[in-house]
Write a structure and sequence with these properties.
With 379 residues, the protein is of the alpha+beta class. The protein is built from 19 helices and eight strands.
Length: 379
């Protein structure tokens, strides 16, 4: 039997909305759990095209991911909440400073999952007490498609870059969701409002959008620097520039950002040491210092090897000869992923030096991908 609110529905929603605001949420909306029957077909098409890359978990959870009811049949309503994480400065300005590393805005401070989940649980608990309904809380950690559901709940619309866009906060919203067995009054969905603008598509350094509203993850630097486990494909290394974790280009150029204020949530503001980190310092990190620097940050989850891979590719794009000794120091790294990126960086910065060292290093190299970096025989 479905839970029935003991308060008038509008009174209950007003109380939930007020509590969300008090907890620091900037956006609040409600959608029916079955509001987007189009999602399974769209997801199947994207998976069939291979746009998810090696994120196998997307295919493995496709049946549940396509609909909230696929994951929890008893769900009647979804509450979507957003927190503005708008940056204080232009995140693209650092791209011109090649000896510094560019970290995506969302990763410059505490992991947003940790910040939002506790707040969601408090609101979900209030709902459960008022209705005796069952509730489940999600922050991008379960097969739930938050962005289209947030569009259905009126928080904004999925832009041509596939990220949620808000009239009040542009492209800078962290999303969280509460599924409930209570049937709550739904908000009106938000109409797509991109118009003829294509700035987000035009700025993409790797042409990751096959068409508006479609993202090919295998070409996306946000995917390649964070989710991808192997070497960065050669064709994307130069376009990667100094982006060492994520890519904000398509978000940062959205015209709707002009309405976004700086986050009210102080814990979402950037740590100074992650706003303009020097590649020279990052490439020297060992595991202990990596874990200390990125404690509580989503960056910690990719591990040291992938992070050094990214930093070395950025160094290869830096044109900074002073970094050559630091690159050479990584040619003997224990992880082949790091060694391969170091070889590429050295060949970019100092081709003559790379040729000089090549024979000796190839003689003791056992990994075929690293050997390919030395010989230039890489796809």
């Amino acid at each position: 039997m479905n839970a029935v609110p003991t308060l008038p529905a509008q009174t209950l929603v007003a109380e939930l909305r007020a509590r969300a605001t008090a907890l620091g949420f900037d956006s609040f909306g409600i959608a029916a759990a079955n509001a987007r029957p189009d999602l399974p077909a769209k997801l199947d098409a994207a998976l069939a095209a291979g746009w998810h890359g090696d994120m196998d978990w997307m295919a493995e959870t496709a049946e549940r991911r396509g609909s909230p009811n696929g994951m929890w049949p008893e769900a009647k309503s979804v509450i979507l909440l957003g927190i503005n994480y708008g940056p204080e400065t232009d995140p693209l300005a650092i791209l011109g400073e090649k000896s510094l590393g560019s970290i995506s805005v969302y990763a410059r401070n505490r992991d947003y999952h940790e910040i939002i989940k506790g707040k969601l649980k408090e609101i979900a608990g209030l709902l459960a007490r008022r209705t005796a309904a069952e509730v489940k809380v999600f922050v991008d950690t379960a097969p739930l498609m938050e962005k289209p559901l947030a569009e259905a709940a009126g928080l904004g619309w999925q832009g041509k870059h596939t990220v949620l866009v808000s009239r009040e906060f542009g492209s800078w919203l962290f999303l969280g969701a509460i599924l409930t067995s209570a049937e709550l009054p739904a908000d009106a969905p938000h109409a797509e409002s991109c118009g003829s603008c294509t700035r987000c598509l035009d700025i993409c350094p790797t042409n990751a959008f096959p068409a508006p509203f479609q993202l090919e993850a295998r070409r996306c630097l946000a995917y390649l620097t964070v989710e991808h486990k192997g070497p960065i494909p050669v064709e994307f290394r130069a376009p990667m520039g100094n982006r060492i974790y994520g890519c904000d280009d398509c978000l940062a150029v959205c015209p709707w950002n002009k309405f976004a204020s700086i986050s009210r949530e102080a814990r979402l503001r950037a740590r100074p040491e992650l706003e303009r980190p020097a590649l020279a310092e990052l490439v020297q990190l060992d595991d202990a210092r990596f874990r200390a620097l990125f404690a509580g940050s989503p960056i910690k989850r990719i591990g040291l090897a992938r992070f050094l891979r990214n930093a070395l590719i950025a160094i290869g794009n830096s044109d900074d000869a002073t970094l050559i000794p630091l690159v050479e120091a990584r040619l003997d790294a224990g992880d082949a992923l790091v060694r391969g990126a170091a070889v590429w960086a050295l060949r970019r910065l100092a081709p003559a030096r790379a040729a000089e060292l090549s024979l000796a290093y190839r003689a003791r190299e056992s990994d075929s991908s690293v050997m390919g970096e030395w010989t230039g025989d890489i796809a």
